[in-house]
Inverse folding.
């Protein structure tokens, strides 16, 4: 190899990285066209003392269910909603969850474009994202809300960031590198670059110590169950119970990989050995390779890799990005035809 | 069997280009995906070189101001434990620094050296076999290329990422790359990468006009961020590893025109004893080339000088009286402080022409006792018309002419006395802050105070700056305020939790009325006291007052008591162009004072009770300031503890304010 850092690209995997769950990969332009009609502008209480009287929401059902951020905006019985096509409706607050800063509104309408809560995505650092909101009330009437682009800077708990916040929610958030959390942006959405719903933009938060503004969205995976519960009125199913036991369909050994002994909380996923005649050997993996991504997800540890492998279904593709020396290498393997007996 | 193909990066770029040409949405999608993959892979390549830095035991409070705290980022530049990071991270001078390498090991670090020109700090940890980050060559950098900013401040295994482009090269006087990737305390000290995972530079907050460690932080996440080129860092790494403190190199020259549109580089002043002075440069010389490169404007000179450190050599050519000369010098870190000279007069404030009909000269309204002017026989009502034969049109011209001399110089002062011209030799002394407390006030020509609808508000009043309830303040304007006679302005900064409004007003009112001083008291919204963000509030407030009233720019001071002193120092030291004085009561100076310069004069008044536990520290502050050649008046009030003094004791401060325009 001659000079510089070389790079291996497996062109065939383009489109799978960071879009592994996508139904159909689409461009940002197509995604924006699809998302904008699902966004609404909300008007309610406020207008005094730097409290804006406008906000953003998004449709989650064909018959007018709208998710937004729970805020002072809803402290009135005259909340109105303006759809993307300019139609204005009176909205009723049918429920809210203060610990998630989440509220569900309902308007009396039918056959509306909407997000499907059964199809929400997840993403990690570096993933390109789009943000949709009516920040600063730039959009009026039938004007579409504003779109911004950026990447996910980090995913982590809100409380872990520098300084302290006065905020009820303390779960994970997507931190974004675009300035998304402006006045009126709360209740807007963050999507993947191909338009899959990632999270809801929260209200502006300021770090009391460094005086920096935080740009973040609460992942839909944290909100979807609660939205469904408010909508159906069925609170019997707790979120914790709802999640099935972690599947463990496959392990590294099923691909012919032996990882280094998992001795500490975050043992990096180094390859210790590779079985001869295995998938891993066939694609050229070697001892001392460090596995950094699996199917586009970051693999910070041996445990994280096993979680990823556990999710695979028989004959799924497994694309690994490994670091070898100073270079990255991408390989794709196929999961076995059957889940082994354990 | 999955398909495995090796594609060289450049071929990937070609593929991207081909896709662009295809110009379909499918191609858009592929391009977006490829770019996204490139960002993530660049981050993954650099990731082993990025460390997390925690400042354990560090102060949350710097100079009394709460500073950003929390983890920050660093980059490995030497396998055996060398970490480079932004000096911003150490503004709070932490007691102990811990570095966590990507393998999760946490080690104690020590500061090996700092680069004050580029706001970088080199740390050393006891480690080996770390992974240094490769530098992207400067000459390959192009405006518009992708730039990926990484930080390691979140408690997450993977660095945080922000993506943008290179916005400009050679910024901040040739020192920095500019990017629109988001930079903030989240990633200061982290790398700015190209798509190949090489470091373009190290992210630091910078401001072209300011030099303190936190300058530029107000531009966080704005799309205006800076990084110091990694090549430049590696170029001086061995010097830093040897423990050398790198500082900006200085010549000792100033130019008449300082703004961004400054014109020809004509030397205005040459600091005595500076490299430029020793190399023979003098006021009026026009710089024509720096290190062989032709320069025609002041910013050119600053760009070429900006990349240099103290200890570096520089070569100038300059024109004087139509002929060109060359000068070689070695730049220095610190210049001999400027020591202001004193003639010993208070000039008439109402323009002389207006008062007498005379068109030229500076009227003398008071001669300071025991001053050079007094000793040489200059008396009240003399009019100074010449200094060393040069015509003096007004008090400002006299001030400028005198300031160009050094204490000890003898100057020829031309005066008009009773219609007759005379020339008097005066041997200047150093500017002293000693002012008689019974200094007479300016004799105000009797005028009717303005009245009616549009008249400026007088007496005590309150307001919010810009209608912002978090920026409330009170003010007192003397009843006989006269727009024709500019007033002094005292900005009162209250201690934490107590605005002391009634007490201050009661004690200051008479002095304000007598000496024509406007008193303004901003109130901090935080019960815990002033924060760095309030500095802008104070300067905005001064601006507001200057728009509403005629304020004498030579007599704008900040007056603070107790724990407001650090805030007062920060306000004054960071806004030298606005403030001419700092008055502290029951407090010492806990910020490093700036440099005494002729461009922005600055005087100090420190008052402390004889029984105040702070008295020794306060006195030491005064002595330190004197050593830096600042005029300082230290006033000790016997029988006074740690408390705000009586109105009588404050009379000296009012007189000091009133005499700030002395020459």
């Amino acid at each position: 190899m001659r000079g510089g850092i070389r790079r291996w690209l497996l062109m065939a995997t383009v489109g799978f990285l960071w879009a592994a769950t996508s139904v159909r990969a689409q461009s940002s332009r197509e995604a924006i066209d699809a998302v904008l009609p699902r966004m609404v502008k909300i008007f309610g209480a406020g207008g005094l003392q730097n409290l804006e009287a406008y906000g953003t929401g998004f449709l989650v059902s064909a018959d007018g269910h709208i998710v937004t951020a729970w805020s002072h905006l809803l402290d009135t019985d005259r909340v109105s909603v303006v759809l993307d096509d300019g139609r204005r409706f009176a909205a009723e607050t049918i429920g809210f969850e203060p610990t998630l800063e989440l509220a569900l509104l309902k308007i009396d309408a039918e056959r509306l474009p909407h997000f499907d809560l059964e199809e929400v995505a997840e993403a990690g650092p570096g993933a390109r994202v789009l943000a949709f909101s009516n920040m600063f009330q730039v959009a009026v009437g039938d004007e579409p809300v504003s779109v911004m682009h950026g990447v996910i800077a980090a995913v982590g708990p809100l409380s872990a960031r520098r300084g302290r916040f006065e905020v009820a929610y303390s779960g994970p958030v997507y931190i974004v590198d675009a300035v998304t959390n402006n006045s009126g942006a709360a209740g807007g959405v963050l999507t993947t670059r191909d338009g899959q719903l990632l999270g809801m933009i929260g209200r502006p938060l300021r770090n009391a110590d460094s005086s920096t503004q935080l740009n973040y969205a609460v992942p839909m995976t944290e909100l979807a169950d609660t939205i469904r519960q408010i909508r159906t009125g069925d609170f019997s199913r707790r979120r914790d119970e709802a999640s099935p036991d972690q599947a463990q369909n496959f392990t590294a050994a099923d691909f012919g990989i032996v990882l280094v002994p998992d001795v500490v909380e975050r043992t990096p996923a180094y390859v210790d050995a590779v079985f001869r005649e295995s998938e891993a050997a066939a694609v050229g993996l070697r001892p001392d390779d460090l596995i950094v991504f699996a199917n586009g997800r970051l693999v910070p540890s041996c445990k994280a890799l096993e979680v990823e492998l556990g999710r695979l279904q028989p004959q799924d593709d497994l694309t690994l990005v490994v670091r070898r020396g100073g270079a990255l290498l991408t390989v794709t393997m196929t999961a076995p035809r059957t889940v082994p007996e354990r | 069997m999955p398909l495995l193909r090796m594609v060289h990066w450049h071929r990937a770029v070609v593929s991207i280009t081909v896709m662009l040409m295809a110009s379909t949405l499918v191609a858009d999608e592929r391009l977006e995906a490829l770019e996204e993959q490139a960002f993530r892979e660049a981050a993954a390549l650099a990731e082993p070189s990025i460390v997390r830095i925690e400042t354990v035991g560090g102060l949350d409070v710097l100079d009394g101001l709460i500073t950003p705290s929390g983890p920050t980022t660093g980059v490995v530049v030497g396998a055996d434990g060398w970490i480079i990071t932004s000096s911003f991270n150490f503004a709070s001078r932490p007691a102990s620094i811990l570095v966590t390498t990507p393998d999760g090991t946490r080690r104690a670090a020590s500061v090996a050296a700092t680069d004050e020109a580029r706001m970088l700090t080199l740390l050393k940890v006891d480690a080996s076999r770390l992974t240094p980050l490769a530098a992207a060559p400067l000459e390959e950098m192009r405006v518009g290329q992708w730039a990926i900013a990484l930080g390691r401040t979140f408690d997450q295994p993977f660095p945080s990422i922000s993506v943008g482009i290179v916005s400009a090269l050679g910024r901040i006087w040739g020192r920095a790359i500019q990017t629109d990737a988001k930079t903030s305390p989240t990633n200061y000290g982290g790398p700015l990468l190209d798509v190949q995972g090489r470091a373009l530079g190290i992210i630091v907050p910078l401001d072209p006009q300011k030099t303190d460690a936190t300058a530029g932080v107000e531009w966080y996440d704005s799309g205006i961020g800076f990084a110091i080129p990694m090549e430049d860092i590696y170029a001086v790494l061995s010097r830093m590893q040897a423990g050398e403190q790198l500082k900006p190199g200085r010549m000792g020259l100033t130019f008449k025109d300082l703004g961004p549109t400054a014109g020809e580089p004509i030397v205005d002043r040459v600091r005595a004893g500076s490299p430029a002075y020793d190399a023979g440069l003098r006021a009026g010389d026009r710089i024509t080339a720096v290190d062989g490169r032709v320069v025609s404007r002041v910013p050119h000179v600053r760009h070429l000088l900006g990349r240099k450190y103290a200890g570096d050599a520089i070569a100038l050519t300059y024109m004087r009286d139509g002929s060109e000369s060359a000068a070689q010098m070695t730049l220095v870190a610190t210049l001999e402080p400027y020591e202001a000279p004193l003639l010993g007069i208070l000039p008439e404030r109402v323009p002389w022409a207006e008062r007498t009909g005379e068109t030229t000269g500076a009227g003398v309204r008071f001669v300071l006792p025991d001053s050079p002017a007094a000793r040489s026989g200059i008396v009240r009502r003399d009019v100074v018309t010449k200094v060393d034969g040069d015509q003096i049109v007004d008090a400002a011209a006299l001030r400028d002419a005198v300031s160009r001399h050094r204490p000890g110089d003898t100057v020829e002062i031309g005066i008009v006395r009773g219609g007759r011209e005379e020339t008097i030799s005066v041997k200047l002394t150093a500017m002293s802050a000693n002012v008689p407390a019974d200094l007479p006030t300016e004799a105000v020509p009797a005028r009717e105070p303005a009245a009616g609808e549009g008249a400026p508000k007088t007496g005590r009043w309150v307001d919010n700056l810009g209608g912002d309830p978090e920026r409330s303040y009170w003010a007192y304007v003397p009843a006989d305020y006269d727009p024709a006679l500019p007033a002094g302005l005292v900005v009162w900064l209250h201690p934490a939790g107590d605005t002391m409004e009634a007490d201050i007003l009661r004690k200051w009112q008479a002095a304000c009325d007598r000496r024509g001083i406007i008193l303004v008291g901003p109130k901090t919204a935080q019960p815990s006291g002033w924060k760095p963000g309030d500095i802008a509030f104070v300067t905005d407030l001064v601006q507001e007052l200057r728009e509403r009233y005629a304020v004498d720019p030579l007599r704008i001071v900040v007056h603070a008591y107790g724990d407001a002193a650090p805030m007062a120092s920060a306000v004054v030291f960071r806004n030298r162009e606005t403030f001419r004085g700092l008055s502290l009561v029951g407090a010492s100076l806990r910020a490093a004072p700036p440099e005494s310069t002729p461009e922005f004069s600055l005087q100090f008044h420190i008052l402390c009770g004889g029984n105040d536990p702070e008295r020794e520290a306060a006195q030491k502050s005064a002595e330190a300031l004197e050593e830096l050649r600042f005029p300082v008046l230290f006033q000790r009030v016997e029988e006074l503890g740690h408390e705000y003094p009586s109105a009588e004791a404050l009379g000296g401060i009012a007189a000091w304010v009133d005499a700030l325009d002395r020459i």
Remarks:
- The two ends of chain A are 44 Å apart (CA to CA).
- Residues 1-23, 160-165, 237-244 of chain A have pLDDT under 50 and may be disordered.
